[in-house]
Every structure is written in C-alpha cells, then in structure tokens.
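#structure-requests
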Amino acid sequence: MNTELYSGLSAIRPPWEMEPRILKLEVTKLTNELQKDTRWVSDMKVKETVAYVFVTVQRNMIDLILAVNNPMTWHQNNLKLNRSHYSILKYGGSHLINRIQQGYGAGVYFNTLVPFEDRLIKYGIISTSKLITDLLDWDTLYVSGRLHKPLMISYTFQVKVLHQTQDAGLEQALKVNLQSAIHATLLSLPETFTEEELYLQIACLSYTGDFRMFLGEDKNKVNNIVRPQLDRFRNLYSDYLNRIPQLEWNCKTAKYQKDCNMNNQLHHLNLLPKKVQHHLYVACNKDGRHRDMEDVMRALANDIECGDMVTLAVRDIVWQSSWSQSLKGILTAGIYKSLKYSFRKIVKMTKSMKTIR
C-alpha cells in the first residue's frame, strides 16, 4: 500500500451505538480492510488518474465511488488487475466500458457484489469533470445527492493527484452542492420548521422521484440516515445556515423561522443549480408565453406553489437518472448479479415495511 498517495483519512462515527474502545477497534479494522481491498487504487498509476474516493461502509457492504481523471485508462488498468469484477462487457475492452459509462445513466460505472473476506464491495467510477458538473448543476443528482448526507459510516480518501487549481475546483463544487441543497430545501419547507425536519428534507432530495424507493429500498431509509446522525448533518450545514440572513433560529420554540417575502424567495431561486432552474423554466413556459429565466424566477418568487414546483423539478431529475442508471446496471453487473442485488434490496425493503407496521 502506497500510503504517500493519501493526504487524509477521516471517519464518521457509525449511526449505531458503540463503546469508544470497540469503535476504535472497528475503525482500525475497516481501515485496514479498505487499504487491502483498494489495491486497484494503490497498486496502479493512480497519480495520473484517481482524484477522490467516497466510501460508505455498512455492516456487510463497502460502497465506493471513485472519481478518476481518465476513466478509459483507469478501466484499462483495472481490467488487467481485476478482470473478474466486470460483466460480459469486459470482452469489449476499456473503450466499450468507457462508452457505456459516459454515454448512459448518471455517468457512473459500477462493479458490484465483489467478494472480500466477510463483506461485499460495490465500487463505481465517475470522471472528475462529470462529478464537478453534477455537484454544481445537479445534472443527475446521482452522486451529488449522495454527498448531501454525511455518508453512513464513511471514509473519504483524498488522493493528492490533482493540480492545485483543479483540487480547489472540486472542493468548491462540494461546498456549492451543500449550499444548493439548503436553498432548494428552504423553498420547500413551511415558514417554521425543526432542525430535524430541515435535514430530513435535505436527505429526501436525492430520493424524491427515485423509482427504487417504491420497488426495492428500505422504507425507513431517510429516517435511518438522518435521526442517528443529526450531529453529523449539523457539522455539514450549520456554518452556512448561520450565514443566511433570511433564516433565524428561535431558541424558545427550538425551530427555524424563514422570511418568505418575494425578495428572499427570489434569492433562493437564483441560487438553485442550473438543471433545476431549467426544469422550472420549461414548466413555467408550457403555456406558450416564452418568458426568459429572469421573468420565470420572479413569477415563481410570488407563487404560493413555488416550493411544490421546485420539488417537482428535483423529482424529474432524479426519476430520469435513477431509471437510466438502473437499466445500465443490468449491463454493467450482468443478469445474475443484477437479480441477486435486486433480491437483497427487496428483502431489505420487506423487513422495513414490517417495522413500519
């Protein structure tokens, strides 16, 4: 393991309770496992290809998203080291794999159900440029939506491979993504709301319109993400929330209160990601009036249904990317792994439905 590649490794505490001593042992164990099993990161010429790795560790699954500068080169090298991770698409070589990754779905290529000791690994590849675009514009909300949350038990490897300007660009995009989540959420919430309601709404953004929430996801998923991790959400968002003049915290009621006048609504609308604004523009011009973006934003700022329209715009983005990425997953995982993975999801969903009852 070339530890010089990594500039930092941070761990977010698991949502379930652990004694400090046990937690430390578990973190150490998982760190060692990740270092062993990310050999495709450490043993290749990653100094030219890998930018960031976002990792979610659950009890029986390690889920990685790798942002790489050159996906085709990365797949070419990975096919040499880990050919068995790929589906039948491997016979088309790195050119075909790269074309499938870049041309369909959310721009992510997943290898799933890769065995490692007592866990399974699922890792996805996305180009750094595609990641930055999704963070800034919410083109798909597929990866950017994941990063609205303090990934449940997450380790983030920051690999020193980018020029300083590129690295700063990605860091800024990550911050803008969180700020966009706040502006979209504030437009959808009532005049007063609790801190938990705020974070539940933020966590919902990337699941609103996701067909998998109806066909194979844990029905308690959003609650399970937010409620055990309120402190983590607070760490992510509190600094920016405190700098929003249109928002006040009422200590007596333990609730936020927002100012809903037109100028404040317009402020939030103007700071929405480009793809959301485009959906709003199209929706507001269905009557054939062809108003420009400025007129649309002003009209929405005065519209009592503004929050609902923002929610619908986000839902449309998520719906399209979730369908297309899932269909692509049948190719990238193969029929057998797709069925196996779907079965695991359905079992999980069924258990959660029993809990709800």
